[in-house]
Design a protein that fits this description.
The complex is a heterodimer of chains A (116) and B (111).
Chain A lengths: L3 E2 L4 E5 L4 E3 L2 E2 L7 E6 L6 E6 L5 E3 L5 E5 L4 E6 L8 E12 L2 E6 L3 E6 L1
Parallel strand pairs in A: 2-12
Antiparallel strand pairs in A: 1-4, 3-9, 5-6, 5-10, 7-8, 8-9, 10-11, 10-12
Chain B lengths: L3 E4 L2 E4 L5 E7 L5 E8 L3 E10 L2 E4 L6 E3 L9 E3 L8 E8 L6 E2 L3 E5 L1
Parallel strand pairs in B: 2-11
Antiparallel strand pairs in B: 1-3, 3-8, 4-5, 4-9, 5-6, 7-8, 9-10, 9-11
The chains are: A mainly beta (116), B mainly beta (111).
């Protein structure tokens, strides 16, 4: 079964600092990769996704992620964080579910606190 | 455009009680799923459905039942609630390879 590891459970940064959140997955086949964000009190929203093509993916709000197949990684980056980026971030990877469909497996999440 | 609608938003149950968490989507999505979110554990897949009449188990299915009689609805049933089922529950849907659309969640407390 697919597993997703997010090694940083809590990250605290000051505004304008650079951000990198790690994500590693275990599935060796073709993968679809996602980063979701959950702002306090809200549901999950998609930040960005990778299906194929350019391994450097740009998402909303200045976020980007790089798919490195050899390292089974899909790290999330932002050059300069803002206070409004305070949220919990989840990496997710697809796992085949039969019938040409897939189910999404999430990592345990990383809580980011950005201090003004 | 309602998207994914979950009811209720909050629920308190006593151990042993049963209840159904409702989930409806108006986007004609084939795939629907239920997750529970617990601190430090991320989202764990409970059950999912790839279409009407088809359901399957996720990572943590024990204690939960689902059915998918229509494309729009995917209710989650707790037959005999336990304190370990205290959690926030999210329903999500998608079509094909599109990203998941999440509902606003149901916060369940079992005492």
């Amino acid at each position: 079964a697919q597993s997703v590891s997010q090694h940083n459970h809590h990250v605290i940064l000051s505004e304008a600092a650079s951000l990198e959140l790690g994500c590693n997955y275990s599935y060796g086949g073709t993968v679809n990769l996602f980063w979701y964000v959950q702002y306090p009190g809200q549901h999950l929203q998609l930040l960005l996704k990778y299906f194929s093509g350019d391994p450097l993916v740009k998402g909303i709000k200045g976020f980007e992620a790089e798919f490195i197949k050899s390292k089974f990684s899909f790290n999330l980056r932002k050059p300069s964080v803002q206070w409004s980026d305070t949220a919990e971030y989840f990496c997710a990877v697809n796992e085949p579910a039969g019938d040409s469909s897939y189910k999404l497996i999430f990592g345990s999440g990383t809580r980011l606190l950005v201090r003004p | 455009n309602a998207g994914v609608t979950q009811t209720p938003k909050f629920q308190v149950l006593k151990t042993g009680q049963s209840m159904t968490l409702q989930c409806a989507q108006d986007m004609n999505h084939e795939y629907m799923s239920w997750y529970r979110q617990d601190p430090g554990m991320g989202l764990r897949l409970i059950h999912y459905s790839v279409g009407a009449g088809i359901t399957d188990q996720g990572e943590v299915p024990n204690g939960y039942n689902v059915s998918r009689s229509t494309t729009e609805d995917f209710p989650l049933r707790l037959l005999s609630a336990a304190p370990s089922q205290t959690s926030v529950y999210f329903c999500a849907s998608r079509q094909g390879n599109s990203p998941l659309h999440f509902g606003n969640g149901t916060r369940l407390t079992v005492t």
